[in-house]
Amino acid sequence: MLIMSIETSCDETAAAIIENGQIIRSNVVASQAEMHSKFGGIIPEMAAREHMLNLIPVIDQALKISGITIDDIDAIGVTNGPGLAGSLLVGVNTAKGIAFPKNIPIQGINHLEGHIYASWLEENNPDDEFGFPLLCLIASGGHSDLVLMNNHQEFNLIARTRDDAAGEAFDKGARILGLPYPGGPSIQKSASNGCSGNFNLPRPKINNSLDFSFSGLKTALLREVQTLKNLNDQNKSDLASSFQEAITDTLIRNTLQAAEIHNVKGILIVGGVAANQRLREEIKKRSPIPLMIPKVEFCTDNAAMIGAAAFYRMKNNLTFEWNMDVIPNLSF
Ligand code: KG4
Ligand code: ZN
């Protein structure tokens, strides 16, 4: 089954052609990060306009690279939430416009489900490697969710963030340190020259809950910066390292606790924050349960993961969701 997938939920305009949920015939991503970085964060209105300009050329390129035409496509999967309403609308309406004249089945795909299915793009997918149940940590710009996956399409949200998401914390922390957007990669880069032990930042824990909370950590970082008379490059790197350590440590602690409680066969670490090298290394060292982390390019937003999710949603259910709408606050 050949699926065309489209992703425009945030600041990446992306399209892919995916065969049988795993083989990547093409995967094109046009990032707007540079444009938004001038403003220190995403401007929703500008994001939607950029998607309008870039989506058709991105789809064209995805088709060209894969060597197929629109007539070869069996189905279209498009992210319809969660995300920025205006950005989602561009993707969903473009997908409908392509599907309608050709009568191609089309379905809306949950972006978070897409992040999880990035793990199925690997050669040995979680079905072959572990079996179910699986625990998924989705750590992105908008979410820090722990999701129990009992089978394909069977998701159970067991923990979330009470305030900032992990990626949001990286982005806000970077702003406090005067580092560029997106914050995750710039904190990771600065942290590589720093020593985490020179500052002591908290690991927030909510009593009797696996939920996350990162806003107190952000305030603690702000206090350290305000206390310092002069934020030079070295203490900026030390703070970046300490901040990165506090976030990754908290994510790992709750994930491993949840995995033990729910007796899972494997752990999937996904979402933009899963691109973080420190998190990748450290959780591999500390987890007694086998785990999988997609390649860095499939952790941050892309359409290949939406194509993989669409395959498992549509293989037994090739329907036309013409009345599908965007759902900016879609959850599991
Ligand atoms: O999944 P994603 O691309 O988009 C959303 O669905 O939100 O995640 C974006 C988030 C941003 O907050 C960004 O700072 C963070 O992922 N991120 C990272 C890294 N690369 C991206 N955080 C930590 N370390 C990284 N290397
Ligand atoms: Zn995402």
Structure description:
The chain is an alpha/beta fold. It has 2 domains: 2-119 and 298-314, ATPase, nucleotide binding domain (Nucleotidyltransferase, domain 5, 2-Layer Sandwich), CATH 3.30.420.40; 130-293, 2-Layer Sandwich (Nucleotidyltransferase, domain 5). The protein is 44% helix and 19% strand. The protein contains 12 helices and 10 strands. It has helices at 33-37, 44-66, 85-102, 111-117, 126-129, 166-177, 183-191, 215-227, 233-261, 277-286, 296-299, 304-314; strands at 2-7, 12-19, 23-31, 75-81, 106-110, 134-139, 144-151, 154-159, 266-270, 291-292. The strands form 2 sheets. It has a 5-stranded mixed beta sheet, with helices on both faces. A 5-stranded mixed beta sheet has the order 8-7-6-9-10, sandwiched between helices. Strand 1 and strand 2 (12-19) form a beta hairpin. Helix 2 (44-66) packs parallel to helix 3 (85-102) and helix 7 (183-191) crosses helix 9. It is globular, with a radius of gyration of 20 Å. The structure holds 5'-O-[(R)-(carboxyoxy)(hydroxy)phosphoryl]adenosine (KG4) and zinc ion. Residues 10, 140-142, 167-168, 170-171, 182-185, 188, 271-273, 275-276, 300-301 line the site of 5'-O-[(R)-(carboxyoxy)(hydroxy)phosphoryl]adenosine.
Order of helices and strands: EEEHHEHEHHEEEHHHHEHEHH
Number of individual domains: 2
Strand line-up across the major sheet: 3-2-1-4-5
SS field, number of helical segments: 12
Q: How confident overall, as mean pLDDT?
A: 96
**Ligand roster:** 5'-O-[(R)-(carboxyoxy)(hydroxy)phosphoryl]adenosine, zinc ion
**Proportion of helical residues:** 40-55%
Largest sheet: 5 strands, mixed
Classify the fold: give the CATH topology of the largest domain: Nucleotidyltransferase, domain 5
Separation, N- and C-terminal Cα atoms: 25 Å
Broad shape? globular
Strand proportion:
15-25%
Low-pLDDT residue spans: none
CATH architecture of the largest domain: 2-Layer Sandwich
CATH superfamily of the largest domain: ATPase, nucleotide binding domain
- As a whole number of angstroms, the C-alpha radius of gyration is 20 Å
